[in-house]
């Protein structure tokens, strides 16, 4: 069997050229994704229909031969499974019933895994259809990030509603984050049981937290989730992505127990190289370099490879690819990382 290179890196090996996958690699920049999307009633239906979700997951693997496939789904399936009436409005992003403080006590996570059964079916089918050497990644949102959407009822630029709850009613937010941490850990364990090789926890909004809140709402729940996963399914490799964490990236691996840390593009490469001495890192090209074109891609990739390819490293962007990217420029990026362009 061909070794799954990303799993080797996550065990601390240096692989050259580094393995590569891209956040949001299945998405609107691909014409074949837009065609498949047109067959779904709405975005959640897309996520819950194994035929369609498998197809969307495989599209970027067929086109680019990425070293990892990431399950096609969304972090907001957890609030959906908690009956928050999640909808994705075209052109507006996600919407759901905002969660008032006094509703938090009434949240009932007992039906979450049943509600998400189609996701596990997708994972099972994927492991059967993917090339042997392709790592299959499962994922979920971190409790804090998912909580921000549940409290506001939609995305916001600064997560003010959740930060206000954090100062005004910290015990309530603790309770919400606890419910999410337990449900999300069980959700990831079920993905592993269905065939995911490793899992990634997306804390896309950790960057709005001050240092006290970062410990309480980003680090602590992620540490708890990872402890649960490693206790119940020993050896499961975990990637953590505390986007925007800045200085607080320091010590994050040690505090949470994550095997690999995903870096956003604002992390300086000397800091990234320093972190790599403690363990594997993933990242961190600015997604807009792919939109800007080949010169910007070449320059950014070369700097990253110079700094990080001598240690355990997985190439990725520093956040998701945007719909404006040209699929041919993505091909150039992949070839350049692999030394072929
Ligand atoms: O290819 C992959 O990376 C796997 C699929 C994936 C999606 N969302 C599909 C998606 C993953 C890993 C996510 C994670 C996700 N979803 C995050 C964490 C990572 C990040 O980007 O910070 C967050 C915060 C969300 C919530 C979310 N989902 C938002 C805010 C939006 C709307 C904005 C947007 O990009 O449209 C989504 C929708 C979404 N999730 C799309 C896709 C492909 C676009 C929906 C469409 O096709 O219309």
TrEMBL record:
Record protein name field: Uroporphyrinogen decarboxylase
Quaternary context: Homodimer.
Catalytic activity, EC: 4.1.1.37
Family membership noted in the UniProt record: Belongs to the uroporphyrinogen decarboxylase family.
Role of this protein: Catalyzes the decarboxylation of four acetate groups of uroporphyrinogen-III to yield coproporphyrinogen-III.
Record-linked InterPro entries: UROD/MetE-like_sf, Uroporphyrinogen_deCO2ase_HemE, Uroporphyrinogen_deCOase
Keywords from the named record: Cytoplasm, Decarboxylase, Lyase, Porphyrin biosynthesis
UniProt-annotated location(s): Cytoplasm
Boundaries of every Uroporphyrinogen decarboxylase (URO-D) domain copy: 19-28, 137-153
Lineage top rank: taxon: Bacteria
Molecular function terms, GO-annotated: uroporphyrinogen decarboxylase activity
EC primary class: lyase
PROSITE patterns noted in UniProt: UROD_1, UROD_2
GO (cellular component) term, any one: cytosol
Cell membrane is among the record's keywords: no
Gene Ontology terms: biological process: protoporphyrinogen IX biosynthetic process from glutamate
Catalytic activity: uroporphyrinogen III + 4 H(+) = coproporphyrinogen III + 4 CO2
Binding site for substrate: 24-28, 74, 149, 204, 319
One Pfam match: URO-D
Gene: hemE
């Amino acid at each position: 069997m061909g070794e799954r290179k990303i799993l080797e890196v996550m065990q601390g090996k240096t692989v050259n050229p580094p393995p590569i996958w891209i956040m949001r690699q299945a998405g609107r920049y691909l014409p074949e994704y837009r065609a498949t999307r047109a067959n779904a009633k709405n975005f959640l239906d897309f996520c819950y229909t194994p035929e369609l979700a498998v197809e969307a997951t495989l599209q970027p693997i067929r086109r680019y031969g990425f070293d990892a496939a990431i399950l096609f789904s969304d972090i907001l399936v957890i609030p959906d499974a908690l009956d928050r009436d999640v909808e994705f409005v075209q052109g507006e992003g996600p919407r759901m019933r905002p969660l008032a403080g006094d509703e938090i006590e009434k949240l009932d996570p007992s039906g979450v895994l049943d509600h998400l059964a189609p996701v596990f079916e997708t994972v099972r089918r994927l492991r059967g259809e993917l090339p042997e050497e392709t790592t299959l990644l499962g994922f979920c949102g971190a409790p804090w990030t998912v909580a921000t959407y549940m409290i506001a009822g939609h995305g916001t630029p600064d997560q003010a509603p959740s930060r206000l709850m954090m100062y005004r009613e910290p015990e309530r937010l603790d309770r919400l984050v606890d419910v999410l941490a337990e449900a999300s850990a069980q959700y990831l364990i079920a993905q592993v049981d269905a065939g995911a090789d490793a899992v990634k926890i997306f804390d896309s909004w950790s960057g709005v937290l001050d240092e006290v809140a970062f410990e309480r709402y980003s680090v602590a729940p992620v540490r708890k989730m990872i402890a649960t996963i490693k206790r119940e399914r020993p050896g499961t490799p975990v990637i953590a992505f505390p986007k925007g964490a800045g200085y607080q990236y320091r010590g994050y691996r040690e505090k949470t127990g994550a095997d690999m840390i995903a870096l956003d593009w604002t992390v300086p490469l000397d800091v990234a190289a320093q972190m790599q001495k403690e363990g594997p890192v993933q990242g961190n090209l600015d997604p807009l370099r792919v939109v800007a074109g080949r010169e910007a891609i070449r320059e950014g990739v070369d700097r990253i490879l110079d700094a990080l390819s001598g240690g355990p490293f997985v190439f990725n962007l520093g956040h998701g690819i945007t719909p404006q990217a040209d699929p041919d420029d993505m091909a150039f990026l992949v070839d350049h990382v692999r030394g072929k362009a």
